[in-house]
Amino acid sequence: MTEHAQEKVWRLVDLMHWSVEYLEKKGIEDSRTAVEWMLTHVLKISRVDLYLSYDRPMSREELNQYKPLLLKCAAHQPVQQVVGQADFYGFQLTVSPDVLIPRPETERLVEFVISEAKKRIAPFSILDIGSGTGAIAIALAKHLPLARIHALEVSPQAVDILKKNCRFHNLMNRISIFQEDVLNWEAPEPYDIIVSNPPYIAEHEMEQLPKNVGYYEPPLALTDRHDGLTFYRHFARKFQDWLLPGGMAVVEFGGPSQRESVEEIFHAYKDPEIHRDYQKDDRFISFFRP
Ligand code: GLN
Protein backbone atom coordinates (compact mmCIF):
# COMPACT_ATOMS: atom_id res chain seq x y z
CA MET A 1 0.00 0.00 0.00
CA THR A 2 1.19 3.49 -0.70
CA GLU A 3 1.64 5.88 2.16
CA HIS A 4 -1.20 7.94 0.82
CA ALA A 5 -3.64 5.04 0.87
CA GLN A 6 -2.90 4.40 4.55
CA GLU A 7 -3.77 7.91 5.60
CA LYS A 8 -7.05 8.01 7.45
CA VAL A 9 -9.52 10.58 6.24
CA TRP A 10 -10.99 12.39 9.22
CA ARG A 11 -14.43 13.81 8.74
CA LEU A 12 -15.17 16.77 10.96
CA VAL A 13 -17.82 14.83 12.84
CA ASP A 14 -15.45 11.93 13.58
CA LEU A 15 -12.72 14.27 14.75
CA MET A 16 -15.15 16.06 17.03
CA HIS A 17 -16.38 12.89 18.65
CA TRP A 18 -12.92 11.47 19.02
CA SER A 19 -11.56 14.71 20.52
CA VAL A 20 -14.39 15.13 23.01
CA GLU A 21 -13.87 11.62 24.27
CA TYR A 22 -10.09 12.08 24.41
CA LEU A 23 -10.38 15.28 26.46
CA GLU A 24 -12.97 13.71 28.74
CA LYS A 25 -10.56 10.90 29.50
CA LYS A 26 -7.97 13.55 30.40
CA GLY A 27 -10.42 15.01 32.89
CA ILE A 28 -11.14 18.19 30.95
CA GLU A 29 -14.45 19.78 31.90
CA ASP A 30 -16.72 21.03 29.17
CA SER A 31 -14.69 19.23 26.55
CA ARG A 32 -17.32 19.66 23.83
CA THR A 33 -17.16 23.43 24.11
CA ALA A 34 -13.36 23.31 24.06
CA VAL A 35 -13.37 21.20 20.89
CA GLU A 36 -15.85 23.54 19.24
CA TRP A 37 -13.65 26.54 20.07
CA MET A 38 -10.52 24.89 18.68
CA LEU A 39 -12.19 23.70 15.50
CA THR A 40 -13.90 27.00 14.74
CA HIS A 41 -10.51 28.61 15.31
CA VAL A 42 -8.63 26.27 12.94
CA LEU A 43 -11.33 26.18 10.26
CA LYS A 44 -12.18 29.89 10.63
CA ILE A 45 -15.89 29.17 10.58
CA SER A 46 -18.70 29.87 13.03
CA ARG A 47 -20.04 27.37 15.53
CA VAL A 48 -23.21 26.95 13.51
CA ASP A 49 -21.19 26.23 10.37
CA LEU A 50 -19.30 23.60 12.30
CA TYR A 51 -22.52 21.66 12.64
CA LEU A 52 -23.51 22.31 9.04
CA SER A 53 -20.18 20.94 7.82
CA TYR A 54 -20.36 17.65 9.70
CA ASP A 55 -19.19 15.50 6.78
CA ARG A 56 -16.45 17.81 5.65
CA PRO A 57 -13.09 16.03 5.44
CA MET A 58 -10.24 17.64 7.38
CA SER A 59 -7.21 18.51 5.24
CA ARG A 60 -3.73 17.52 6.30
CA GLU A 61 -2.84 21.14 7.07
CA GLU A 62 -5.95 21.57 9.17
CA LEU A 63 -5.12 18.44 11.13
CA ASN A 64 -1.56 19.64 11.63
CA GLN A 65 -2.82 22.93 12.94
CA TYR A 66 -5.40 21.32 15.19
CA LYS A 67 -3.25 18.68 16.86
CA PRO A 68 -1.01 20.98 18.96
CA LEU A 69 -4.09 22.87 20.16
CA LEU A 70 -5.71 19.63 21.26
CA LEU A 71 -2.56 18.59 23.11
CA LYS A 72 -2.38 21.89 24.98
CA CYS A 73 -6.02 21.55 25.94
CA ALA A 74 -5.40 17.97 27.10
CA ALA A 75 -2.61 19.34 29.31
CA HIS A 76 -5.27 21.49 31.02
CA GLN A 77 -4.33 24.78 29.40
CA PRO A 78 -7.52 26.88 29.31
CA VAL A 79 -9.00 26.73 25.83
CA GLN A 80 -9.19 30.53 25.72
CA GLN A 81 -5.39 30.66 25.99
CA VAL A 82 -5.04 27.86 23.46
CA VAL A 83 -6.97 29.78 20.82
CA GLY A 84 -6.00 33.24 22.12
CA GLN A 85 -9.58 34.44 22.45
CA ALA A 86 -12.29 34.73 25.07
CA ASP A 87 -15.92 35.76 25.07
CA PHE A 88 -17.11 38.37 27.54
CA TYR A 89 -20.44 40.15 27.75
CA GLY A 90 -21.26 39.26 24.16
CA PHE A 91 -18.00 40.34 22.55
CA GLN A 92 -14.57 38.85 21.86
CA LEU A 93 -11.29 39.63 23.54
CA THR A 94 -7.74 38.63 22.75
CA VAL A 95 -6.18 36.78 25.67
CA SER A 96 -2.69 35.46 26.40
CA PRO A 97 -0.95 33.76 29.33
CA ASP A 98 -0.19 37.31 30.58
CA VAL A 99 -3.79 38.21 31.39
CA LEU A 100 -6.57 36.77 33.51
CA ILE A 101 -9.24 35.13 31.36
CA PRO A 102 -12.41 37.12 31.97
CA ARG A 103 -14.96 35.20 34.04
CA PRO A 104 -18.75 35.07 33.85
CA GLU A 105 -18.86 36.24 37.52
CA THR A 106 -17.47 39.55 36.36
CA GLU A 107 -20.26 39.92 33.80
CA ARG A 108 -22.69 40.34 36.70
CA LEU A 109 -20.54 43.18 38.05
CA VAL A 110 -20.56 44.84 34.64
CA GLU A 111 -24.33 44.44 34.35
CA PHE A 112 -24.80 46.12 37.73
CA VAL A 113 -22.49 49.04 36.93
CA ILE A 114 -24.25 49.61 33.62
CA SER A 115 -27.70 49.61 35.24
CA GLU A 116 -26.56 52.15 37.85
CA ALA A 117 -24.60 54.37 35.47
CA LYS A 118 -27.36 54.46 32.84
CA LYS A 119 -29.25 56.78 35.20
CA ARG A 120 -26.69 59.49 34.53
CA ILE A 121 -27.47 62.12 31.93
CA ALA A 122 -24.21 64.12 31.87
CA PRO A 123 -20.74 62.85 30.90
CA PHE A 124 -19.01 61.02 33.74
CA SER A 125 -15.71 59.33 34.55
CA ILE A 126 -14.86 55.74 35.42
CA LEU A 127 -11.63 54.31 36.80
CA ASP A 128 -10.99 50.58 36.21
CA ILE A 129 -8.20 49.24 38.43
CA GLY A 130 -6.28 46.19 37.15
CA SER A 131 -7.84 46.06 33.70
CA GLY A 132 -6.10 42.97 32.33
CA THR A 133 -7.76 42.19 28.97
CA GLY A 134 -9.91 45.28 29.39
CA ALA A 135 -13.04 43.15 29.77
CA ILE A 136 -14.72 45.48 32.29
CA ALA A 137 -13.55 48.76 30.74
CA ILE A 138 -14.54 47.74 27.22
CA ALA A 139 -17.96 46.42 28.24
CA LEU A 140 -18.65 49.67 30.12
CA ALA A 141 -17.43 51.83 27.24
CA LYS A 142 -19.64 49.96 24.78
CA HIS A 143 -22.78 50.33 26.90
CA LEU A 144 -22.20 53.73 28.47
CA PRO A 145 -21.60 56.29 25.71
CA LEU A 146 -21.32 59.14 28.24
CA ALA A 147 -18.47 57.50 30.14
CA ARG A 148 -14.83 58.47 29.86
CA ILE A 149 -12.70 55.65 31.21
CA HIS A 150 -9.25 55.41 32.77
CA ALA A 151 -7.81 51.90 32.79
CA LEU A 152 -4.94 51.06 35.15
CA GLU A 153 -2.80 47.98 34.58
CA VAL A 154 0.56 47.15 36.14
CA SER A 155 1.86 44.44 33.80
CA PRO A 156 3.44 45.73 30.57
CA GLN A 157 2.53 42.48 28.77
CA ALA A 158 -1.06 42.86 29.89
CA VAL A 159 -1.05 46.49 28.76
CA ASP A 160 -0.15 45.28 25.25
CA ILE A 161 -3.19 42.99 25.23
CA LEU A 162 -5.36 45.73 26.73
CA LYS A 163 -4.32 48.15 23.98
CA LYS A 164 -4.93 45.54 21.33
CA ASN A 165 -8.45 44.91 22.62
CA CYS A 166 -9.29 48.61 22.91
CA ARG A 167 -8.03 49.16 19.36
CA PHE A 168 -9.98 46.18 18.05
CA HIS A 169 -13.18 47.54 19.56
CA ASN A 170 -12.39 51.03 18.37
CA LEU A 171 -12.34 52.48 21.88
CA MET A 172 -8.90 54.11 22.06
CA ASN A 173 -10.57 57.53 22.21
CA ARG A 174 -12.83 56.51 25.11
CA ILE A 175 -10.42 54.49 27.25
CA SER A 176 -7.11 55.98 28.45
CA ILE A 177 -4.61 53.34 29.48
CA PHE A 178 -2.02 53.83 32.23
CA GLN A 179 0.68 51.31 33.05
CA GLU A 180 0.75 51.77 36.82
CA ASP A 181 0.84 49.84 40.07
CA VAL A 182 -2.24 51.00 41.94
CA LEU A 183 -0.46 50.46 45.26
CA ASN A 184 1.99 53.23 44.26
CA TRP A 185 -0.32 55.57 42.41
CA GLU A 186 -2.37 58.64 43.09
CA ALA A 187 -5.50 59.55 41.15
CA PRO A 188 -5.02 62.66 38.98
CA GLU A 189 -8.68 63.53 39.58
CA PRO A 190 -11.59 62.09 41.58
CA TYR A 191 -13.91 59.80 39.61
CA ASP A 192 -17.67 59.30 39.45
CA ILE A 193 -17.30 55.53 39.46
CA ILE A 194 -14.45 53.17 40.36
CA VAL A 195 -14.53 49.49 39.43
CA SER A 196 -12.05 46.71 40.07
CA ASN A 197 -11.54 42.97 39.97
CA PRO A 198 -8.27 42.86 41.93
CA PRO A 199 -6.11 39.78 42.65
CA TYR A 200 -7.90 38.34 45.67
CA ILE A 201 -6.63 34.81 46.08
CA ALA A 202 -4.58 34.35 49.27
CA GLU A 203 -1.03 33.06 48.88
CA HIS A 204 -1.85 29.86 50.79
CA GLU A 205 -4.79 29.12 48.47
CA MET A 206 -2.72 29.29 45.31
CA GLU A 207 -1.70 25.64 45.53
CA GLN A 208 -5.30 24.46 45.72
CA LEU A 209 -6.39 26.17 42.50
CA PRO A 210 -7.59 23.95 39.67
CA LYS A 211 -4.75 23.05 37.33
CA ASN A 212 -6.09 25.16 34.46
CA VAL A 213 -6.01 28.29 36.65
CA GLY A 214 -3.00 27.65 38.90
CA TYR A 215 -0.61 26.47 36.19
CA TYR A 216 -1.59 28.73 33.36
CA GLU A 217 -2.98 32.06 34.52
CA PRO A 218 -0.66 34.87 35.63
CA PRO A 219 -0.14 34.84 39.43
CA LEU A 220 0.05 38.65 39.36
CA ALA A 221 -3.62 38.73 38.34
CA LEU A 222 -4.68 36.11 40.87
CA THR A 223 -2.97 36.74 44.19
CA ASP A 224 -1.63 39.56 46.35
CA ARG A 225 0.88 37.03 47.77
CA HIS A 226 -0.59 37.72 51.20
CA ASP A 227 -4.07 37.11 52.60
CA GLY A 228 -6.02 38.14 49.49
CA LEU A 229 -7.24 41.40 51.06
CA THR A 230 -4.34 43.79 50.33
CA PHE A 231 -6.16 45.66 47.58
CA TYR A 232 -9.36 46.17 49.57
CA ARG A 233 -7.42 47.70 52.47
CA HIS A 234 -5.64 50.02 50.07
CA PHE A 235 -8.88 50.97 48.29
CA ALA A 236 -10.58 51.68 51.64
CA ARG A 237 -7.89 54.22 52.47
CA LYS A 238 -7.74 55.78 49.00
CA PHE A 239 -11.28 55.84 47.67
CA GLN A 240 -12.14 58.72 50.05
CA ASP A 241 -9.95 60.86 47.77
CA TRP A 242 -10.31 59.02 44.48
CA LEU A 243 -14.12 59.15 44.40
CA LEU A 244 -16.17 62.29 43.94
CA PRO A 245 -18.66 62.96 46.75
CA GLY A 246 -21.57 60.59 46.08
CA GLY A 247 -19.37 58.58 43.71
CA MET A 248 -19.81 54.82 43.54
CA ALA A 249 -17.29 51.97 43.84
CA VAL A 250 -17.96 48.41 42.69
CA VAL A 251 -15.36 45.82 43.62
CA GLU A 252 -15.24 42.06 43.03
CA PHE A 253 -14.02 39.74 45.80
CA GLY A 254 -13.28 36.06 46.31
CA GLY A 255 -16.73 34.80 47.30
CA PRO A 256 -18.58 34.09 50.57
CA SER A 257 -15.38 33.43 52.56
CA GLN A 258 -14.21 37.04 52.04
CA ARG A 259 -17.57 38.72 52.50
CA GLU A 260 -17.25 39.62 56.18
CA SER A 261 -13.71 40.94 55.86
CA VAL A 262 -14.60 43.02 52.83
CA GLU A 263 -17.67 44.50 54.56
CA GLU A 264 -15.55 45.34 57.57
CA ILE A 265 -12.80 46.93 55.45
CA PHE A 266 -15.28 49.23 53.65
CA HIS A 267 -17.49 49.91 56.70
CA ALA A 268 -16.90 53.68 56.64
CA TYR A 269 -18.51 54.05 53.21
CA LYS A 270 -22.19 54.68 52.51
CA ASP A 271 -24.87 52.15 51.50
CA PRO A 272 -22.67 49.08 51.12
CA GLU A 273 -24.42 46.28 49.26
CA ILE A 274 -23.23 42.74 48.60
CA HIS A 275 -24.17 41.25 45.23
CA ARG A 276 -24.21 37.65 44.10
CA ASP A 277 -22.93 36.05 40.93
CA TYR A 278 -24.77 33.60 38.64
CA GLN A 279 -23.84 30.77 41.01
CA LYS A 280 -25.58 32.66 43.82
CA ASP A 281 -22.26 33.25 45.61
CA ASP A 282 -21.49 36.62 47.19
CA ARG A 283 -19.15 38.12 44.59
CA PHE A 284 -18.94 41.90 44.60
CA ILE A 285 -19.64 44.89 46.80
CA SER A 286 -20.93 48.33 45.88
CA PHE A 287 -20.73 51.39 48.09
CA PHE A 288 -20.66 55.17 47.88
CA ARG A 289 -18.45 57.97 49.10
CA PRO A 290 -20.50 59.91 51.67
N1 GLN B 1 -12.01 34.78 39.69
C1 GLN B 1 -10.69 34.26 39.59
C2 GLN B 1 -10.65 32.82 40.08
O1 GLN B 1 -11.49 32.44 40.83
C3 GLN B 1 -9.72 35.10 40.37
C4 GLN B 1 -9.66 36.45 39.84
C5 GLN B 1 -9.08 37.41 40.81
O2 GLN B 1 -8.24 37.12 41.65
N2 GLN B 1 -9.53 38.60 40.69
O3 GLN B 1 -9.80 32.08 39.69
Describe the structure.
The chain has 290 residues and is an alpha/beta fold. Helix content is 43%, strand content 19%. It has helices at 3-6, 12-25, 31-43, 47-52, 60-74, 79-83, 104-117, 135-143, 156-168, 211-214, 219-222, 230-242, 256-265; strands at 85-88, 91-94, 124-129, 147-153, 175-179, 191-196, 243-252, 270-276, 282-288. The strands form two sheets. A seven-stranded mixed β-sheet has the order 5-4-3-6-7-9-8, sandwiched between helices. It has a two-stranded antiparallel ribbon with strand order 1-2. Helix 3 packs antiparallel against helix 5. It starts with a helix and ends with a strand. Bound molecules: glutamine (GLN). Glutamine binds next to loops.
List keywords for this structure.
single chain; 290 residues; alpha/beta; Helicase, Ruva Protein, domain 3; Rossmann fold; seven-stranded mixed β-sheet; two-stranded antiparallel ribbon; 43% helix; binds glutamine
Describe the secondary-structure layout.
Blueprint lengths: L2 H4 L5 H14 L5 H13 L3 H6 L7 H15 L4 H5 L1 E4 L2 E4 L9 H14 L6 E6 L5 H9 L3 E7 L2 H13 L6 E5 L11 E6 L14 H4 L4 H4 L7 H13 E10 L3 H10 L4 E7 L5 E7 L2
Parallel strand pairs: 3-4, 3-6, 4-5, 6-7
Antiparallel strand pairs: 1-2, 7-9, 8-9
This protein binds glutamine.
